[in-house]
Write a structure and sequence with these properties.
This protein is an alpha+beta fold. Helix content is about 65%, strand content about 15%.
Length: about 190
């Protein structure tokens, strides 16, 4: 993957306003990681992996062209240890189910966007209930509380489901679709009473 492709994907997936904004984000990430490593810090990105600086001692090796024994100078180098999500992705891709895994990732990104939309609607629902009388306001606040609890449960289940991979994604999607449809129906019933 090239920098251009990565920046393009960052723009699309984060819904950034322009390629220039995405490139600024990319540059900020790279610069922040480099500064932290230069300062002796370890950089851990959950699910992706951990970057660290390690010291290597001087050692003996062979010149690959001539086979001659030579001294390889010591120094510092950046080490990367992949995180659990990256390891999982690599295992899935190596097993030949990469297309399903990528489809699943896109599916869950879409579901997360829909959950964010519902969260905004719930906030609107709460705000509008403030204009009602005390009895109605109490009823709407109770409905909003229940919707919020269901929404958090669905969000938690999506988080668990996202860790699935390969052929399991299709089965997980069916369950997630059912849970999400139930949440939307509950939200529409509550909103319809407003």
């Amino acid at each position: 993957m090239t920098k251009d492709r990565l920046v393009r994907q960052m723009k699309e997936q984060a819904e950034l306003p322009s390629m220039a904004a995405a490139e600024q984000v990319y540059e900020a990430i790279v610069e922040s990681v480099a500064e932290a490593l230069a300062g002796g810090e370890e950089v851990g990105i959950r699910g992706f992996g951990t970057f660290s600086v390690v010291s290597r001692a001087e050692r003996t090796g062979r010149n690959p062209r001539t086979g001659e024994i030579m001294t390889i100078p010591g120094g510092r180098k950046v080490k990367f240890a992949p995180g659990s999500e990256l390891k999982s992705a690599t295992a899935v891709l190596a097993g030949g189910s990469g297309a399903e895994w990528l489809k699943g990732k896109e599916y869950f990104r879409g579901m997360e966007r829909q959950l964010e939309d519902l969260k905004e609607k719930l906030e609107d629902y709460r705000a509008k209930s403030e204009t009602l009388g005390n009895d109605a306001k109490a009823l709407y606040k109770e409905n909003a509380k229940r919707l919020s609890e269901v929404m958090e449960e669905v969000r938690y289940k999506f988080t668990l489901l996202k860790s699935g991979s390969g052929g399991a994604i299709e089965e997980l999607k069916k369950g997630a679709d059912g849970a999400f449809a139930e949440l939307k129906a509950a939200f529409q019933r509550a909103w319809g009473k407003f």
